[in-house]
Specification:
25% strand; 12 helices; Aminopeptidase; Alpha-Beta Plaits; 6-stranded mixed beta sheet; 7-stranded mixed beta sheet; alpha/beta
Length: 462
């Protein structure tokens, strides 16, 4: 029985949780975690396959410039379990990356990295899933196949670093799962799931969560001595006007779209006695529907451009489509509710809770196939906070692994009848990965938008 072998490997699962917690790395830098987990999976007798360098001609050609590039090897790998009987392929994910919280008492003293979102617990749980599925006769009675995927770069941080990787041709997209979609590694996957550690002790799944656009505004003015401000053009004032203009749009955000806009000034000037000539504002705009928050994004860009023009500044805008809205499949909720009830009290299970306004790149996967991303308890403190920790690793890792193995079995038993029923009754948002990537590419925007003519005219160009 697969579950027995998860329990037999409890000490290994907990050892993995501690090791990755003590060695955190951020997205697309997770090489130590990659090598460590490869060794653990190989110790279970499993063949691992890495995300190697690939020519662009092998991946889906979604780059706007149409150029052929070779995309470099990135951290992460996968393992396939084949039942030998035809049926759907399930993908089960675990994320490797941490956050940058230098105030966390257990962060890496050199980098400030820490697993304050519990991704290390996902990796430990996936080791438990691998142990359960690799046991003798574990796949008996199941049809189809299961792919375990250790994936990089879920958190939307270090955007300048990731954009540099894009520029160099290392990656095409700044989030791990979208990069795997681009590289064709999910072409033969039919449905997907993962479980995320959460504070408390419950096993929950919301209806879904927001997607986002990652934004960067650069206001370009003219420097002068602060005692002679009439000689300069104050980029900081332009940014302040823009923030006020964007705030005036907030009451136009429709409640049903759960729009969130949260900007910060990341560079506001270089010297107190000089008029700031270059100011940077970074932001996310989040929402439940790509069309809705894309439309609101255009209004915010217009407000920023008009504000720059009001002060006489130039403005560069860079928008990158981040994570897509996450849609948790209702039929998969039923499966996970049943699987959870085998190992947890019914009172602690809540499937179908209200929409979540956070973001996850698992949303990209859910746009093209039936998918689900529940949360399990075991963590304590504040998510993404300096007091976050895994307080109950047995619940967050071992029980999580048992639920995932049980859910996979429910989907693939009886000729994979449950999985086939879900596939037959699910219409993805996008009919293909290629169409999904093309739609998100259309959101990307990078240009200067305010122009001044010699005759005194000002034009805003988008």
């Amino acid at each position: 029985m697969q579950i027995i072998d998860v329990e037999k490997n409890k000490s290994l699962i907990l050892e993995v949780e501690r090791h990755i917690w003590e060695n955190p790395e951020t997205g697309f830098r997770e090489w130590k975690t990659h090598e460590y987990l490869m060794g653990v999976f190989k110790s279970l007798g499993l063949e691992t396959k890495t995300f190697e360098r690939i020519p662009a001609s092998v991946a889906i050609k979604s780059a706007k410039d149409g150029k052929d590039r070779v995309f470099d090897k990135i951290p992460g790998f996968y393992v396939d379990f084949d039942t030998g009987r035809s049926g759907p392929r399930l993908a089960i994910f675990a994320e490797m990356d941490g956050l940058l919280i230098p105030t966390h008492p257990e962060c890496d003293s050199q980098t400030g990295a820490v697993h304050a979102c519990g991704h290390h617990a996902q990796c430990a749980a996936l080791v438990g899933v691998a142990a359960g599925l690799s046991a003798p006769h574990a796949l008996d009675g199941l049809s189809g196949s299961i792919r375990l995927i250790v994936v990089p770069a879920e958190e939307g941080i270090e955007n300048d670093f990731r954009q540099e990787l894009v520029k160099r041709g290392v990656i095409r997209y700044t989030h791990g799962k979208k990069e795997l979609l681009f590289r064709g590694l999910l072409d033969d996957v039919d449905m997907a799931f993962m479980i995320h550690a959460e504070t408390g002790k419950k096993f929950t799944c919301e209806m879904g969560s927001n997607g986002n656009i990652v934004k960067k505004f650069t206001f370009i003015g003219k420097s002068s001595h602060a005692a002679e401000p009439q000689e300069g053009i104050n980029a900081l004032y332009a940014a302040n006007v823009a923030l006020s203009a964007a705030n005036a749009l907030r009451e136009t955000f429709a409640e049903k779209d759960t729009i969130r806009f949260h900007p910060i000034i990341t560079h506001g000037g270089s010297a107190v006695n000089a008029i700031p000539d270059r100011v940077t504002v970074e932001a996310y705009i989040r929402g439940a529907d790509l069309a809705a928050y894309s439309e609101m994004n255009k209004k915010i860009n217009r407000a920023f451009a008009a504000s720059a023009a009001a002060i006489g500044c130039r403005l560069e805008i860079k928008d990158v489509c981040g994570s897509s809205p996450r849609i948790n499949n209702k039929m998969l909720m039923d499966v996970f509710g049943e699987a959870g009830a085998e190992f947890m009290d019914a009172a602690d299970i809540e499937m179908g809770s209200p929409w979540n306004t956070g973001c996850s790149d698992f949303g990209d996967v859910s746009q093209v196939m039936p998918a689900i991303h529940p949360h399990i308890g075991g963590a304590a403190g504040t998510n993404h906070g300096s007091d976050y920790r895994i307080a109950d690793p047995v619940l967050a890792c071992v029980t999580s692994a048992k639920i995932q193995v049980a859910a996979a079995a429910k989907l693939l038993e009886n000729g994979a009848a449950r999985a086939k029923m879900i596939l037959a009754n699910t219409v993805p948002v996008y009919p293909s990965i290629k169409e999904f990537l093309a739609a998100t590419d259309r959101v990307d925007f990078n240009r200067e938008v305010v122009y001044y003519s010699d005759n005194g005219n000002v034009s805003l160009t988008f």
